[in-house]
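Service request form, structural biology core

Requester: graduate student, group of Dr. S.
Request type: structure prediction, single chain
Budget code: on file
Notes: please return the result as structure tokens.

Sequence provided:
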Amino acid sequence: MSKETYIDSNISKQIYQWSGIVYLTAAFLNMLLSLLDYIVTPANFKTFLTYRAVTSVLFILIYFVSRKKMNKIYQTGLLLLGTIIISTMIELMIMKFGGHQSPYFAGLILTIIYVLGFMPLNMIMSMCASLIIYGIYLIPIIAYDTISNKPFFISINVFILSIISFVLIWKYFSLKGFINEVGLKYDLEQQKKQLEVYSTQLKDMVADRTKALNESEQWHRSLFSNATDGIVVLDRNGIIINVNDKACEMRGFSRDSLVDTHIRLLERDESLDKMSERMRRIFAGESLVYEAKHNKKDGSSIFLEISSKAITIGDVVYLQSFYRDITEKKKMQQHLFQSQKMESIGVLAGGIAHDFNNILTAILGHVEIIRRFTSLDEKAGRSLTVIEDASRRAGRMITKLLGFARKSKYEMAPININDVVYDTVKLLEQVIDKRINLSVELENRLPTVQGDANQMEQIIMNFIVNARDAMPNGGSIVIKTAAKTVNTGMLDVPPYVQPGEYALLSVSDTGTGIPEDIVNKIFEPFFTTKEQGKGTGLGLSMVYGAVKDHQGYLAVNSTIGVGSVFTVYVPAAPAAAPAETKASPSPARGKETLLVVDDEEDVLEIMRETLEGNGYKVFATSESTVALDIYRRIFHETALVITDVVMPRMDGKELIRQIKMINPAVKVLAVSGFMKYVADKEEIRDIEGFLQKPFESYNLLSVVRRVLDGRSKSNVTSL
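Core staff response, request fulfilled:
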């Protein structure tokens, strides 16, 4: 609504309101003044009363008509009509009583004041109303009355015109003031509305900001409280200001116990200087990610990956850290590192064993030649026996090394670990110190596993012997078996154990325990804490290799002064497999032509002499390339090729491939100190037999005869 429209609307409202008052008041006062008629002119009282009654009735009718609508023109028209009615009534009374000298001209003055003074007419309508009133007075007198008292008449007209002029002037300023007042009111209302709009907008803005702030606070509180990582806020002094639920859960403390506590009380094995330097760097604006070990409420420790940076809240700078529990990750890393380290050591041990087996093969072969072709006195014979026995003991040690390196062959068959435990305990119960209580707790429904009974027996014996040595003053050893279904995320199972069905074997003792700093070294070959001469350090390393070859897992829990628990997880066998039967001895002698290849001259000479001494025709060479040339010349008459697998320049696998290209039907016997070629047939293909070093002459002759006769492939070990 414009300002002009607003002013017109208010004028219309004012006319509407005042017209109702004016019409009713005029009707009432008009009848009340009839008392004055009775006093002034009793003779005309009845006539004037009739005039007044009619006029009052008309005013009342105009009043009801005026209530129908507020339109300014409509109301102004009714007001002018009322002005005409009251002016006509007064003029009739003037003409009836005294004419131009009638005292009733005062009624005109009252009408002028009443109409112009109380009604908010504009100046044009006010002048029109004045002219109507004055015209109704003047015209009839001039037309019908004789002016006998001109001075009086003139003075009355001057007075009436003066009143009209005064009232119009007053009306002008009054109307101007009214318009200004209404305009000001309009401006105030517009400003009020604008303020209300601003107020509403401000309220909406405040409500939106408050809602956004509440949502933001809820978001941050939810993210803080429900974060899967622990969150800790510190001040510059290292005092904990705030923690979330996960940080409390990690350490086992309540929030009240952690807040206002120095972080130094939680960090373990951290120097104060290192912590201070780290905090200095963070508060200087650097973001750090590091690992630390913290204390838990129960006294245990937890490994954490910590990401820290400085944050500003208000005018205060704090240190905010995100804590991620990497305890299980650390265990898996240690397990992986241990596996890789053991694998590397195993490769090294296998290489050493291969070379050593060549040496032992030569020693044992020459011992046999000396015994066969030389007459020895008693002393020389004893010395030769010592050499032979020492070589055999060395061979057994190499077998242990190969077992650790997973290069030796296990005879896998369906076994029940309970039977192995029973047999092992029965074997050892007579030699265990009487101060040690050895007991077993066996699960009746233990699943069958695919394993080597001898190796499982060695695992149990090593555990029992180590437990005995850890209890010099006596104690208890408990051997348990159990069936276990492993699922992902189980708290009582190491994280590196894959899901599946397992048979568990555990050996626990009440001994001295294993220090934390060496618990990861106990499976390394030649590592031992025993006195010199009381241990080789190969026992647990062989256990580690045997468990791996059974596709199992090994776990150790040890507490100083309480004891140790070794647990082996062996996968349950899906189905029982038939046991492998050993072949019967074969005739050793022959007359076939053989090609023998080995890069070790001593081993080559032993094989050549042994085979030639038993009727075979032998072509021997230490060079694989020379062997290939020889075979091209004699392949028609060659019945068997005997070759070492590991050789320089062209290895045995490549030599076999080249020979098979010349004559696919030729028979091949592979020889090596690495037993992995037996365990994995993919390593060396198209062979009819395999012989592991070190071997003795009867082993060589037996395998050669078996291959030549076309019987099942042989995998023979001599020691």
